Amino acid sequence: MLKVGIVGAGFWSEKHFKAWTQVKDAEITAICDQDLSKAAARAEEFGLSSARLFSDVEEMLRSADIDCVDLITRPDSHLKLVELAARAGKHILCQKPFAPTFEDASRMVELANGHGVRMMVAENWRWLTPFRLAGEVLESGQLGAIRSVRYDHYDDLTPKMSAEREHELEQPYMRHMSKLMFYEMGSHWFDVWRFLFGNPKFLYAAIRRISPNVVGEDSGVVILDHEKFQGVMNMNWASRQYIASSERNPEEVDHESLTIEGELASLFLSTSGTLRVVDNEGNELFRRAMPGLTKEEHEISFKRLIAHFAECLRTGDVFATEAGDHLETLRLQFAVYGSSEAHRPVAI
């Protein structure tokens, strides 16, 4: 039985708690939050009456019966928490964003390696059903050699983030972040990109702020140059595209589409979740309708990633989002800011 200590019982922890309670041969035996009432509330919500509650993480690491920790806290806390957990010999699942700087992230990897513990980043986007299926299509060879890629994300998030509504926001601190959209969501997008296509050779980005309600960027275009093809990300948190759609699904919480043009056929993944493969003559070779990026689909993805973490600890297999490999995702994420500021491509 894998014994788990959870650190952080705030807004995002609900998905982790729910996933852990569904994973076979895993048990939450300790919960830590600086606000002990939050830890108690999560324990009650998920029927974890036997779990020990802590307000101090060092005390939890000293006295709780745990094999690993799940860190669900703000990025600026991760370096210290990883150091404490690594020194205590506990394996680590760390929520994204992994770290506020590449230097902090590299130090965290060094600490885990130096103390002989394993660390995985809790990056759930590659575990979403539409992207898993896209990966299967690519692996099948149906598309042939990739010619071009377009990846879109749009939402009307930042226009709603006014000071008057700050008390209603799930994560109000985001209004004041100097690095916003590509810091908060970039690891999702670039991890999916690397999962499907590997690492690009160059990256060129242009980002900007649209909504006056935020400090950081809420729109951007990124060109990713691979050896044999180019791709573009078009990401926007200040778009009316979804609310103007006559086909919008009220269950969707994220709105993304993906087009992969291949030598033999093309893949089209719509924001509603329908994935189609079409050949040069327009014949539909494959179609699957999925629910899109709904709350339920996100919960499924978290269950998959946490089950994967637990299974890899049991078998010794390599984590899909092993922390050392995740540094390559962070290179892309932080390169967006360097490229946009310098108005030039960045070699990866």
Q: What would the keywords be for this entry?
A:
single chain, 348 residues, alpha/beta, Rossmann fold, Dihydrodipicolinate Reductase, domain 2, 2 domains, nine-stranded mixed sheet, six-stranded parallel sheet, 17 strands, 25% strand, globular
What does this structure look like?
The protein starts with a strand and ends with a strand. The longest helix has 21 residues, at 295-315. The strands form three sheets. It has a nine-stranded mixed beta sheet. It has a six-stranded parallel beta sheet with strand order 3-2-1-4-5-6, sandwiched between helices. Helix 5 packs antiparallel against helix 10. The protein is an alpha/beta fold and 348 residues long. It folds into two domains: 2-117, Rossmann fold (3-Layer(aba) Sandwich), CATH 3.40.50.720; 126-294 and 329-347, Dihydrodipicolinate Reductase, domain 2 (2-Layer Sandwich), CATH 3.30.360. The chain has helices at 13-20, 36-45, 57-63, 78-87, 102-114, 129-140, 181-184, 186-197, 295-315, 323-342, and strands at residues 2-7, 26-32, 52-54, 68-71, 91-95, 119-122, 146-154, 202-208, 219-225, 230-236, 252-254, 256-262, 265-269, 275-279, 284-288, 293-294, 346-347. It is built from ten helices and 17 strands. 34% of the residues lie in helices and 25% in strands.
